[in-house]
Amino acid sequence: MVAINLVAANRFYLPDFTIAPGETMQVAMVLENDEQFTAFQTDLLLPDGLSVVEDDGEFLLDLTGRNPSDQTIISKLRDDGALRMVSFCLSVRPYTGNQGPIVIINLHADENFTGPANIGLKYSFFATIDGTQIILPEESSNVQQLAQQIKGDTNGDGLVNISDITALINYMLTGCSSSFHTENADMNDDGNVNITDATMLITLVIQG
Ligand SMILES: [Ca+2]
Ligand SMILES: [Ca+2]
Fold first, then answer.
1. Which of 15, 16, 51, 179 is deepest in the core (most CB within 10 A)?
2. Residue 186 CA: which ligand is closest?
3. CATH code for 149-208?
4. Per-residue pLDDT for 177 more than 80?
């Protein structure tokens, strides 16, 4: 494999976001790509108080619709505290499109989480369709602490308005939104985000 350093046209990062102490939310890892990539490896470094949600000993990482159907992702917490992720598919087909989330991380903030803090993405290696390896630049994202969870604030900007309806519908259609507050979106607290919550949110926005 040939290593090519810092190709500016390709970028892999987490958009900045806000999270409230005690909250669980979904954050996207976004790939902007000029090349056709089929696989990657990266290290995610979270600040104190933030962790990836675990289910049955597995970290909850979801692949998006940009992935080929046989794409898989595995992850392991390393001794240095970084969560290493490796994603690949046996059919060696590329991610579709050139912009958007490829992995959704389910993140949880402890009750004592205090922001702002930084999230690092390091050692991001991407493999092209012809087997070339490209090292993408190290990225740092900013996470702000939201004072409190607000029902209906699905995009976590502290307000409840039309943008939250858009984010909720986007989430229902695609299963992802660049930073999505699932607990705020679950308007009726039944553990699911669906059309019932959308209806309640629309009513809330209309009534002010
Ligand atoms: Ca909002
Ligand atoms: Ca619900």
1. 179
2. 2
3. 1.10.1330.10
4. no
